[in-house]
Amino acid sequence: MIAKLPALARCFQGILPGALATCAPDGTPNVTYLSQIRQVDERHVAISRQFFNKTSRNLEANPRATATVFDPVTFEQWKLGLRYVRSETDTPLFVEMALRVEAIASHTGMKGIFRLLSADVCEVEWVRPVTGFLAPLPEGACADGPTTGPMTEIRALSLVSCRINRAADLESLLEDVLAALDEVFGFRHSMLLLLDETGRSLTTIASRGYGESGVGAEVAVAQGLIGTVAATGAPMRVSGMEALLRYSRAVRGTVEAAGGGAGLRREIPLPGLPHAESQLALPLLVEERLLGVLALESGDPLAFEEWHESFLLVLANQIAMGIERLSEEAEKEPAPPARAGTAAPAAAAHAFLYYEADDCVFVDGEYLIRNVPGRILRKLLRAARDEGRREFTNRELRLDASLGLPTVKDNLETRLILLRRRLEEKCPGVRLVPVARGRFALEMDGAFTLEERRGA
């Protein structure tokens, strides 16, 4: 070998699509682009088999092939001489590659159609650079990417862990964790999503880098990268998202052109960055019980390296334990003081509209919140209108069967945080303000109306 596979790790990130050339018994060549080619060990790679009918026949008749891969940083091109060894369909390698395909397929409505048939493992017999493909580098230039900064992994872990441990309440924990990921690693866009009471969707409870639109965004379980991580409980890292989505959309176009569009689902828009090139999502687990997902995004295709996945999984476990601890201690610790500067300078009347069919609440014609937080807000507004009440306790909410809170691990604190933040963004004249241990007040700068409708 002229080069070793570990030195070509960037080539297997999927940022620039590779190609595979095979040959039929009669000598007819066939070249196809690869959805995935990943390194298995120092001597083997795995190729994703999805629609490779001709390629599969060629490899069965002639197990030799040539793959072409590209370095996304230097744009160097490499040829790999391959010998087909076996196809895997129920191994950890296949499962990992299949989940990646499934996550991309669900974004484009191709789940169940755009799927992995097998992971074809090939031995790498030789590796050669393609000479003359690029002009030579200027004298003194370096082909390698930027080196890591002075902060070691241990120092970074210590810093973020301290932020988690010193958090006095759940809301500060959520904010401090995302801020630390930004400060320590430079991950500018991140979000924490928690599983809702139905167990079928995740709601963004905290975000950084997205502005006002981040909090309250929802992702269905098993849909897209975040939903797939929630469904499987396994972390997932995807680079070259745009290229993978283009590939899946091209397949979708072919299916639709062949008359199979009726069986396709609508494309699910990516939450967060509209053109994210890389995503990393990690489950928040406590004793195999899913609390939510930590999701990171970047416009840089190489933002997340392999070590980030394992390293941040340690932090995800600490975040989950911190959320669990602070949720249980919410009524044992003094409530945080009310935030300053949230009051609207001028009083205004607000019109709230509640739909009983799906517990959805609109304010002044704009969507605000739904599900359990929606039912909580209706209860508060009813009490304020009919009884003139302004103060409430967490305990009375937990005892109110009409709210539909789970009897175990109701996550009431996270629902109140979500409701408070959505009000701050969409209706700052109405606020939930902590006043004592396990007690909060509903403050309003002006009058309000509450209309309730049975239909959706």
Describe this structure in words.
The protein folds into three domains: 5-129, Electron Transport, Fmn-binding Protein, Chain A (Pnp Oxidase, Chain A); 153-256 and 274-328, Beta-Lactamase (2-Layer Sandwich), CATH 3.30.450.40; 350-453, Orthogonal Bundle (Arc Repressor Mutant, subunit A), CATH 1.10.10.10. It is 31% helix and 28% strand. It has helices at residues 53-61, 92-107, 153-166, 170-185, 224-232, 241-257, 306-328, 371-386, 394-399, 412-426; strands spanning 19-23, 29-33, 37-39, 44-49, 64-70, 77-88, 118-129, 189-195, 201-208, 218-220, 236-239, 278-286, 289-298, 350-355, 360-363, 366-369, 391-393, 430-436, 439-444, 448-453. It has a seven-stranded antiparallel sheet with strand order 2-1-5-6-7-4-3. A six-stranded antiparallel sheet has the order 10-9-8-13-12-11, sandwiched between helices. Helix 3 (153-166) runs antiparallel to helix 4. The radius of gyration is 26 Å and the shape is elongated.
Question: Would you summarize the structure shown here?
Answer:
The protein is α+β, with helices and mostly antiparallel strands and 456 residues long.
Furnish the topology, listing elements before pairings.
Elements: E1 19-23, E2 29-33, E3 37-39, E4 44-49, H1 53-61, E5 64-70, E6 77-88, H2 92-107, E7 118-129, H3 153-166, H4 170-185, E8 189-195, E9 201-208, E10 218-220, H5 224-232, E11 236-239, H6 241-257, E12 278-286, E13 289-298, H7 306-328, E14 350-355, E15 360-363, E16 366-369, H8 371-386, E17 391-393, H9 394-399, H10 412-426, E18 430-436, E19 439-444, E20 448-453
Parallel strand pairs: 14-20
Antiparallel strand pairs: 1-2, 1-5, 3-4, 4-7, 5-6, 6-7, 8-9, 8-13, 9-10, 11-12, 12-13, 14-15, 15-16, 17-19, 18-19
